[in-house]
Amino acid sequence: MCAVMFDHRTPHLVQLCLELYIRREYFGESQVKNLDIFVQDGCWYGSYEYEPLEDHDPLRAECFSPCNENTLDVAPECKGTGFCVMFADDRVLRERWTTALDNVMCHIPHENVVCTVFFAVSVQDGAEEAARHCQQLLDAHSQALVRHRSLQRVTFIAHGIPDGPHTFTYRQCHGWREDTLIRNIAPLSARRLELHRLMNYDVAMYPTPFKDVHVFRATPKKKNPSYLESRMFARVFLSPRDLGVEAWTEANEIDAGHMVAKCFSALEFARNDNTFKYPTYNHIFIKMAELTFDVTNMKRLFEHVGKSYRQRLSYLGIAEVELSFNVRVSSGCIPFRVIISSPSGYNVVMRTSYEWIENGMVCLHRAETSEDIALTTTLTSGENINDVFFEAKDGGSCGSSSNNNNGNGSKGSCGATLRTLLRTASKLSALRSLLPSRVTTAVAAAAASEATDDVEESVPLGPYPMVSEKQLRRLQARALNTVYAYDWPQLLATVLSNQWMQHACGRGFSRECIPKELVKAKELFLDAAGDKTLCEEKRAGHIPCGMIVWLVTLFPPAYYNSDTDDAGSRCIVMVANDITFQSGSFAVPEDDVFSAASELARRLRVPFVYISANSGARLGLSVEVKKRFRVAFSATNEVEYLYLVPEDYEELVRLGVRLSVEPRQEAGEGEMRYVLRGIIGGPDEYLGVENLRGSGLVAGQMSKNYGEVPTISVVTGRSVGIGAYLNRIGRRVIQTDDAPLILTGATALNRLLGAEVYSDNSQLGGKQVMVRNGVTHWNTKNSYRSAEALLVWLNYVPPTVDPLRCCPRVLVLPHLDPVDRDVTFTPSSNEAYDPRQLVCGVGSKLGLFDRGSWTESLEGWAKSVVTGRATLGGIPCGIILVETRLTRKYNPADPADPTSASSFVPQAGQVWFPDSARKTADALDDFQHERLPCFILANWRGFSGGMRDMFDEVLKFGASIVDNVRAYSCPLFIYIPPHGELRGGAWVVVDPLINHNGAVEMYCDLTAHGGVMEPAGVVEIKFRENDIRELIRRNNPHLASLDPKKLREEENRLLPLYRDVAVRFADLHDTPVRMEAVGAVRGVIPWKDSRRLFHVKLQRKLKELSVAASMVEYKDRCSPAERVRKIEAARLREDAP
What we know:
Layout: H1 2-5, H2 14-25, E1 30-40, E2 43-52, E3 59-60, E4 80-86, H3 90-105, E5 113-120, H4 127-140, H5 142-147, E6 151-159, E7 166-171, E8 177-178, H6 187-192, E9 201-206, E10 213-220, E11 231-238, H7 240-243, E12 249-250, H8 253-271, E13 282-288, E14 291-292, H9 298-308, H10 310-315, E15 318-329, E16 332-341, E17 349-358, E18 361-366, H11 370-374, H12 382-394, H13 407-434, H14 438-448, E19 458-460, H15 469-479, H16 488-507, E20 519-526, E21 534-535, E22 547-554, E23 560-561, E24 566-567, E25 570-577, H17 588-604, E26 608-612, H18 623-626, E27 630-633, E28 639-644, H19 646-655, E29 658-665, E30 672-681, H20 689-708, E31 711-715, E32 719-720, H21 722-729, E33 733-736, E34 741-742, H22 746-753, H23 762-765, H24 767-770, E35 778-780, H25 783-796, H26 836-840, E36 855-857, E37 865-872, E38 875-882, E39 887-891, E40 903-907, E41 911-912, H27 914-929, E42 934-937, E43 942-943, H28 947-951, H29 954-967, E44 972-976, E45 981-983, H30 984-988, E46 1000-1004, E47 1009-1011, H31 1015-1022, H32 1025-1035, H33 1044-1067, ...
């Protein structure tokens, strides 16, 4: 526009440009009246009056002048007079500035006057030089500014500067100094963008190619702020023209996406700038004029937009998005705010409110439900309106907004106030009819509420606060690629909320049935003064530490009984490292807390969950001694000893620092020195070996936990040393990406090796290592997915563990899958298939277990065996499957060994290798400690017995399978699936006779086979060529008449055919008929009917083992297997006719 205005060829367009500038400047906020544009003395002038749009102001609950200042330190410009002056260049500006100012101001009676000056620079100056010239102009004509006290601000718009035009604003309230915060921003645009709310920060504009988006780098106004406290503020003003729509269009999802996309692009430009460290706690503000949203569907719209841009929001570190717009109702417009925030980075909270003037301040009043409006309209009640009406009628005073002394003025003021209150009441009534009721939104609000903040009814629209201490710790944890420990209960609540929504949709029950509080986390503290037990409050002598303990009560949707409307619950003990405290390191206080939490979990017999993000055992030096010790050198300038002077030694003794010293008097009358022989440290200093002893304590506690209660570790950040060991000792590990488990860091190893061998810690213990070696059971992309995996695993584990009984909690799945149905997926007899399809089916073909219940574990390790968990009729079970396809084992190269190379080793299907045998044994051990029934769909041809596999201890791990089958005390079903086979050593290690608890039963399909060797191998040994020739002669008597030579030829011709006959004959010895006849299997179960039959057998076995456990409690002296046999015999007698 400036290019047109200062183009000498188009002087006729100047008037249009000035009018366009003035009207656009006040668009959407004020009404421009009495606009007059004229030329005088070669300069263009434009004068006008402006006043606020009556129906766009905040709702008022009191007598309040529109021009009254609120508590924010910003000059109000809601009503007044403005004028524009256009000078040809800066030379003309300097010559005619005072004259032009005097000529205009003498004709303006209004108290609030603003001035805008357009000029072109005559020489090529930069922006700083132009700003300096404007400042010099005002300083040189300061007397004129003093004469015209009604002039509030002057804005210079300079044309001809590179990357221009540039805008410089000077205010009377700032002593006519430039307001650098809004440089290159029109003053009213700055007001729209609410830049005054950045007053708690030192702000600098960050230039981007996106001129309509204003980006600011903000540093908090405090001493020594952390870089994590810095923020980026992106602010944009939008009108219908920007979106290409008509005025007062209700924005849809696409429009909302376009709004935020502009800010995203500007922030992404800043993020790609390597000259500064991009912050991770940023804010977007969008001001809309003559654009609105449908209030009734607004929340759903923003949820969809948030899901679409979730990754980009996280990438750009955007923690809060604020939208300001007007909601149109019949009686006018309601200023409305939507603030969408995610302080923790995982849970999104949307707050909706309307602007409300209360006690002379603009406040944001909550407007999420219709009840929120009804609760806050007391100031617009009939009594208050009547009071104002009668005061106006009687000529009484009405508040302090009237400056008139006569009665007519008071009546006019009160009349205006009455109209304002009536309009406010009408607007609130209309808004209340648009908002949903509290009943329909209670569930979603409970699920979405952050545990950090209590929602207030009304809050002042004040400056943006600096980053709180808790949020700073969140940012510190996020910088270390993990989640702040105290956010874990809320993260679990968020995941549970989404799971409840899925169940409500799948099972068809109302969302009103969802509990309002899905997670109850009670933090526990160590009673250091007593017997080191946990209590619910901090007691005297409490020592701060970086280990947090909660007793958590969960309300999972799988426990909900829709028939009785009962939401069942379960408890867990959850322990977490606070990585923001001493880097999450383990010292004596942390070890004591971990030990006490372990004892609590074992006493309650509930699962023990460890959230791991730490730096291993704490190491340190005595700080007080470090500040005071001195060094004595020998005559040859070698270090002789370290010592303390008497005053320092006495001070350390006073502080309680324990030392081993040797007093020494220097020769002659030298000073007394205390030679240091050993440093023990202060009472609260944990420096070395005591932390290692504590590490041993927690390692023993975790080992005991695994033996007595279900344990699981969630690795959300780096875990070093004892932290890594605890994860492995607890066995089950959920590892998040970028969360390595290491013993020694990459930097320390590189220093030891003398070369940059390892690039980072992930190369040592990241997912590419820990998933493939079987340490990590589940690998997830982020902590949200880790929380999902944790809750899924907890569903399979019983709420409390009984060491004698197997009592799995029957789960209710999101989708109904009846027990009494056929298994419709059938594997092919001559083709390899995915064994997981036996469990969950494929497509429309259903598997043995409940649809949608399968969860695999240890997926990346020992792929020739598949392990996981699923439910059968809602009963959680452990599953072990056999891979029938060829797999490849990866052996990585070691960067520290230049001669090593990575390789892939092929592994055949249906064969146990050392790693898959270990995986099978570990899975059985895990299922036993989880007190889960187990199904092994056995389809092994045997163990791999090659030299390499024997060297890799396949024999040892095969023996471990026997050990764990023997000790299994929950129902264990071995089933040979269709066309499956179980032979040789593979049969031996899972045979039911191994088990001494009567818990193992073996079944097979009609097409299954079992034997010592495969038929072809048996034929090679037991049906040799002579036996085959005898069979040929026996089956073909006419061959006896042939001469020996022809007989031999005929036998040779028939030999291949009869070899197949021999194999078939040998195969008849491996059929289900023989296996059942000799008692090798308990029965034959057709695959089609296996689901309904195994469900009955599982329920029966659970009851048998429960009765057997009761017999133990009554001190029955029989062995476990004998007790089960007695129970089975009694059941058979009852079933007999």
